[in-house]
Amino acid sequence: MGKILDGKALAKKIRSKVKTETAELVEKYNLIPHLAVILIGNDPASETYVASKERASKRAGIKSTIIKKSPDISEKKLIKIIEELNQDNSVHGILLQLPIPKHIDSEKVINMIDPKKDVDGFSNYHVARLNKGLDALVPCTPLGIMEILSEYNINPEGKHAVVMGRSQIVGKPMASLLLKANATVTITHSRTKDLTSITKQADILVVAVGKAKMIDKKYIKPGAVLIDVGISRIDGKLYGDIDFENVKEEAGYITPVPGGVGPMTIAMLLQNTLKCYKNIVQ
């Protein structure tokens, strides 16, 4: 059976490190790191996710403020909230919980966030820097995946990495990070022809398609590193995009769902918040 890549244990280690560093910095600067999260509407998944972000922040010594707004908020009002947070010196990180209602231009609104406070790294400023290989705030999920690879001494250099999915949140930044680590990168998506012939070449396969148990044995190369970003709830149980039971014997390494990539995303958010705080106070 493939070696389990335990994101939960690694996230715990990172959160502990963040907590220690936060306490030292608070003592030095007499200012608590502060993350402001804007939550629009009543999406249950978003509410659960924001609540777990808040709990993790508090445990790490980071102040967390949730600004909850109704789904009919105007774009103008939302931009005004962001502008106020940009100017508030006590706020070091700003996060707009996605998805947001359709009547708001998410691209426009995300780019109103001060790049110094953009903990998600979704603004054009950080996307451009990441693509150029410069220091940037990197989206939390791909950043967490790179930390998992590093923790288990999996060096992407020279390996063929296939990223399934081309979202701005996971697929594209993931490809940029793997390229920076000298992997040969292929991105597949819904229009890709003869998908299995590409995924079977992958030494590292990152799956972010949002279809429960889609990836079985026929998609993978024996001994490959399998990273499962997907999360679907079926009859109260969580499943990833990879059919874990079907592929576990073939895989070299595999992230479980739950307990793989998910906990790392929140750990990286804390790390990014601290990075914003340090850039601002120092």
Name the helicity range.
40-55%
Q: What's the CATH topology label of the largest domain?
A: Rossmann fold
Low-confidence stretches: none
Largest sheet: 6 strands, parallel
**What is the averaged pLDDT score?**
97
The CATH architecture of the largest domain can be named as 3-Layer(aba) Sandwich
Tell me the domain tally: 2
Protein described:
The protein is of the alpha/beta class and 282 residues long. The protein folds into 2 domains: 30-114, Leucine Dehydrogenase, chain A, domain 1 (Rossmann fold, 3-Layer(aba) Sandwich), CATH 3.40.50; 140-262, 3-Layer(aba) Sandwich (Rossmann fold). The chain contains 10 helices and 11 strands. It has helices spanning 7-29, 44-59, 75-87, 106-110, 124-131, 140-151, 171-180, 195-199, 244-247, 261-281, and strands at 3-4, 34-40, 63-69, 93-96, 160-164, 184-188, 204-207, 225-228, 232-234, 237-239, 253-254. The strands form 3 sheets. The protein has a 6-stranded parallel beta sheet. It has a 3-stranded parallel beta sheet with strand order 3-2-4, with helices on both faces. A hairpin with a 2-residue loop joins strand 9 (232-234) and strand 10. Helix 6 crosses helix 7 (171-180). The longest helix has 23 residues, at 7-29. It is globular and about 50 Å long. The termini are far apart.
Question: What's the short story on this structure?
Answer:
Helices cover 41% and strands 16% of the residues. It is an alpha/beta fold.
